[in-house]
Design brief:
heterodimer; A: alpha+beta; Phosphoribosyl-aminoimidazole Synthetase, Chain A, domain 2; seven-stranded mixed sheet; 27 helices; 38% helix; 22% strand; B: alpha/beta; Rossmann fold; nine-stranded mixed sheet; two-stranded antiparallel ribbon; 23% helix; globular
Chain lengths: 762, 222
């Protein structure tokens, strides 16, 4: 018999050693729990606090820095729900609201790439669902170690297959994202998943357990031992005399396994429950499972809750209270329902073959109380677990920043002639980070739901929201670890700028920001300095651009040994498109059009793709962000698209004008000829911010020129579209077939062909 | 004109099939897998998706849905039925169509705009096309490799039951590059590519797919 560690037993056995350190709590944190409760915690309480106060759930190291997002947020009439909710909610007009969020699943995806990435999709989709919205699309920002490293050959195909498996089966189009490679991510890939959902204004749901007597219902999957990291430690170290059980548990993997079919049913079930008005409060179960959902619902609601843990449907009958609380079994939701609506609620669940169980009720006691086999095993003030500690971690700018800054890329040898420029362009275009990504994106369904207007490789994903009016939303994510390594403040603003620009390039107006901040250990003052600089850069950047941060996620401890990854904030920008039928893509269409380069080009090569690919160099200063110029450029693009002046638009980023032109030629199957100023190298490969190249519709050149001038955006006619080669006058010409071959062969050569040779029936 | 679209647990492209029906000028009627009866519709579409997660053989569970007990005899009696992707798989499992769909030869899910050749423009669902016409429609599937024994393949070729063939690269290793087949009467058609995602150039590679839906309208009206 296992001894149940009840509240009464805890009160009677003060001073009993408990395995708080094994569960990741410090001695100070443990003492704080004891002081809060006035006794030692029970095993279940210790489990609950340990997961709620983990970095992942409590944001204890990042909170003091994240506060500035709300503090400095620009006034925005568009925000219906901001930071602190499961996801931010933005008004896009015509009665529609959009909610979106990006979240990391880095560590599980390294351990078990397929399931780690799959459950990352599932988790973010439930966040969006919990706001009351129908999830309508996903995106993924992926970063791996060197493309040719053997371990990348294990991790990347698994991650892609996991996203493909889960997202496709769930029926959500995958409309874009990122793929990049850098040695700093070897042993610590970044798998950041974004989901966006759409609802009507009145559909917003709240994550609060309000109304004493209201029932608490757990529905979806059963609860198993998956994802229980520390509970076996807890059981074996102190309380368990069922040693054989705990040994068994310890052998189980801590990565969760996803069931996208059940998630699809859960989505449809929840949306029907919402539509029928059967839900008072709702919370998804992600990290920390039942522990997190109950404490957060209670803390945000009336304040009390009684939960009978025996009622939780289990898939493993040997689980006890600590494991049930910590389990991260997927595809589960928790609802608060008025007693008179419970029968209808359960009937809707039955229609969708979704298991549901009433496990407790809301109380006005101010205590979260849980029972197990008739005895009380948890009795805590819920806010004490939900709020968690707050740390002001030491931070220090590392001395290595100066050495990095001194490595000026101006000293790197540059191509001497047209042949050299040509070779550099092809080298960039075929490099893994810039090569054609069809190997990845062809494994994702981008068509399902029938509203995808633009998807990879266009600058942003563009979705139709209303078939009658053409109202739509654009989404892009960007990040650049190399820029951020050189300067985390400016690098983060460059990530924000690029995502903002990508959204604008479709003709959409940027409205709101989400972020996934991927960093090393917060206990390293150098990493904490990077984090603080990045957070400050993002807050300042959002204020300057007039777009609020609506929510996000922090992922710390991304490192191998003592080597942290490049600081990699990934920024997602949401824009609204007034009429998606007027959108432009990046591809040059089969009509002659003048090409106009927008923005100012300076010799900026620090952290550039050229320095990285051609010289393996990282040093100097990243390009200077120019947020005012970004704002003007975005306004110009939106106006020009609305007026129908453009046939294509492509933002300039990694690889500069050279790569942008090549991508636009390949996307549309039409070439171009450009004339460049005296320094073609800088014109082609500089990565100055706030730039785009556009193709102007014939006859609209004057109108566009006037519009650019009115917006204060420098505009230079650089050539025209047409033909079947990318030609730079006086430098080189590359046939599109050669460009395409170089661009498309890289990933299949690294990771194997997607198509097999045709099978000839015998 | 009323065309039913069945929703199984895990159906995903039901909404898109309904939109295509509407764009073609007919009224889509939702049919629920667990209900009996076909609500008097003039034709039925089994949409794409992952019924029951496709954890077992694709379509193997959906074929036992209550609604199938009414659909199968109706189809045998001449009701026009179109199965798209997972719907094609279900029709094969229900033995309304010959052959089976197996794992893609490349062992990966493939999304791609594929050129197709209409081999039989005489079926209930392809009469709006002309024989040999080439169209572009998205393919998106992980288990889309058409397979049948040699005798069946020979019969299909001889009797004109190969409705659609991949005209470019064979994207999934389908036998004889077969992308769609029909029953002997030409009333029941299964397609691996998704014509409902090629009904508007705004959201698809073309509007070439509309012809499938327009065809059945013409047939039912006739």
């Amino acid at each position: 018999m296992t001894v149940t560690d009840t509240v009464a037993r805890a009160a009677a056995t003060a001073g009993l050693p408990q395995p708080f350190a094994e569960l990741g709590l410090t001695a100070d944190e443990y003492e704080k729990i004891v002081a809060t409760l006035g006794r030692r915690p029970t095993g279940a309480e210790l489990a609950l606090y340990s997961v709620m106060w983990s970095e992942h759930c409590s944001y204890k190291s990042s909170k003091v820095h994240l506060r500035q997002f709300a503090a400095t947020a620009p006034p925005s009439g568009a925000l219906l729900a901001g930071i602190g909710h499961n996801a931010g909610v933005v008004d896009i007009g015509q009665g529609y609201a959009v909610t979106f969020k990006i979240e990391s699943h880095n560590h599980p995806s390294y351990v078990e790439p397929h399931q780690g990435a799959a459950t990352g999709v599932g988790g973010i989709v439930r966040d969006i669902l919990a706001m009351g919205a129908r999830p309508v699309a996903v995106m993924d920002a992926l970063r791996f170690g060197p493309a040719d490293a053997p371990d990348t050959g294990r991790v990347l195909p698994g991650v892609v297959s996991g996203i493909s498996f889960y997202g496709n089966c769930l029926g959500l189009p995958n409309i874009g994202g990122e793929l990049d490679f850098d040695p700093s991510y070897a042993g610590n890939p970044l798998v950041n998943a974004l989901c966006v959902g759409v609802m009507r204004h009145g559909d917003l749901q709240v994550a609060a357990g309000s109304g004493p007597g209201n029932k608490v219902i757990l529905f979806g999957s059963t609860t198993g031992p998956d994802g229980v990291g520390g509970a076996s430690v807890l059981a074996s170290a102190t309380f368990g005399d069922a040693a054989s059980d705990s040994t068994e548990s310890a052998k189980r993997p801590s990565v969760q396994v996803g069931d996208p079919f059940l998630e699809k049913l859960l989505v449809e079930c929840c949306l029907e429950l919402f539509a029928r008005g059967l839900v008072t409060g709702i919370q998804d179960l992600g990290a920390a499972g039942v522990a997190c959902a109950t404490t957060e619902l209670a803390a945000a609601g009336t304040g009390g809750m009684l939960v009978r843990l025996d009622e939780v449907p289990l898939r493993d009958a040997t689980l006890g209270p600590p494991e049930i609380l910590m389990s991260e079994s997927q595809e589960r939701m928790m609802a608060v329902v008025e007693p008179g609506r419970v029968a209808k609620f359960l009937a809707v669940c039955a229609k969708w073959d979704v298991r549901a169980a009433v496990i407790g009720e809301v109380t006005d006691t101010g205590r979260l109380v849980m029972t197990w086999r008739g005895e009380t095993v948890v009795d805590i003030p819920p806010a004490s677990a939900a709020d968690g500690p707050v740390y002001h971690r030491p931070l220090a700018r590392p001395a290595s920043q100066d050495a990095l800054a001194a490595g000026d890329p101006a000293a790197l040898p540059r191509p001497a002639d047209g042949a050299g420029l040509r070779a550099d362009l092809l080298a960039l275009l075929g490099s893994p980070g810039l090569a054609d990504k069809s190997w990845v994106t062809d494994q994702y369904d981008r068509y399902v739901r029938g509203d995808t207007v633009l998807a990879m490789p266009d600058d942003a994903g563009l979705l139709r929201v209303d078939e009658a009016t053409g109202l739509g939303i654009a989404l892009a994510t960007d990040g650049n670890g190399r820029y951020c390594r050189l300067d985390p403040y400016q690098g983060t603003q460059l990530a924000l700028s690029e995502a903002y620009r990508n959204v604008a390039a479709t003709g959409a107006r940027p409205l709101a920001v989400t972020n996934c901040l991927n960093f090393g250990s917060p206990e390293d003052p150098a990493v904490m300095w990077q984090f603080a600089e990045a957070a400050r850069g993002l807050a300042d950047g959002c204020a300057a651009l007039g777009v609020p941060v609506t929510g996000g996620n922090v992922s710390f401890y991304n490192q191998t040994g003592t080597a942290a990854i490049h600081p990699t904030p990934v920024v997602g920008v949401l824009g609204v498109h007034d009429d998606v039928r007027r959108r432009v893509g990046i591809g040059f269409l089969d009509v002659p059009a003048d090409l106009v380069l927008l923005g100012r080009t300076e010799p900026e090569f620090g952290g550039s793709a050229w320095a990285h690919v051609r010289h393996g160099h990282l040093g100097g200063r990243p390009p200077a962000p120019d947020l005012d110029a970004e704002r003007r450029l975005a306004a110009l693009l939106a106006a020009a698209v609305a007026d129908g002046l453009l046939s294509a638009a492509h933002d300039l980023s990694d690889g500069g004008l050279a790569v942008a032109l090549a991508e636009s030629c390949l996307r549309g199957g039409t070439g171009c000829t450009v004339r460049l100023p005296e320094d073609p190298f800088t014109a082609l490969f500089s990565e100055s911010a706030a730039r785009a190249v556009v193709a102007v519709r014939p006859g609209r050149e004057t109108a566009f020129g006037q519009l650019a001038e009115a917006h204060g955006v420098p505009a230079a006619a650089i050539g025209s579209t047409g033909g079947d080669s990318l030609t730079v006058d006086g430098c080189f010409a590359i046939p599109l077939a050669e460009l395409a071959a170089v661009h498309t062969r890289t990933l299949p050569a690294l990771f194997g062909p997607v198509l097999s040779d045709p099978v000839v029936p015998s | 004109m009323r065309i039913g679209v069945i929703t199984f647990p895990g159906s995903l492209d039901d909404r898109d099939a309904a939109r295509a029906v509407r764009l073609a000028g007919a009224e889509p009627v939702g049919l629920w897998h667990g209900d009996r009866g076909l609500r008097g519709v003039d034709a039925v579409i089994l949409p794409g998706g992952f019924s029951y997660g496709d954890y077992l053989r694709c379509g193997a569970i959906a074929r036992f849905a209550p609604v199938m007990a009414d659909l199968v005899p109706a189809a045998r009696a001449g009701l026009p039925v179109l199965g798209i992707c997972n719907g094609f798989q279900i029709l094969c499992e229900a033995h309304l169509l010959p052959g089976a769909l197996t794992r893609n030869a490349g062992l990966k899910f493939v999304t791609r705009d594929v050129p197709l050749r209409v081999e039989n423009a005489g079926t209930a669902w392809t009469r709006a096309y002309s024989g040999g016409e080439q169209i572009v429609v998205p393919l998106k599937s992980g288990e889309g490799a058409y397979a049948a024994d040699a005798d069946t393949l020979a019969d299909l070729e001889a009797s004109g039951q190969v409705v659609i063939r991949y005209a470019g690269d064979n994207p999934n290793g389908s036998a004889a590059a077969i992308a769609g087949v029909c029953n002997a009467e030409g009333t029941v058609v299964g397609l691996m590519p998704h014509p409902e995602h090629a009904v508007d150039p705004l959201t698809g590679p073309s509007a070439d797919g509309l012809g499938f839906f327009a065809s059945v309208l013409a047939r039912v009206a006739a």
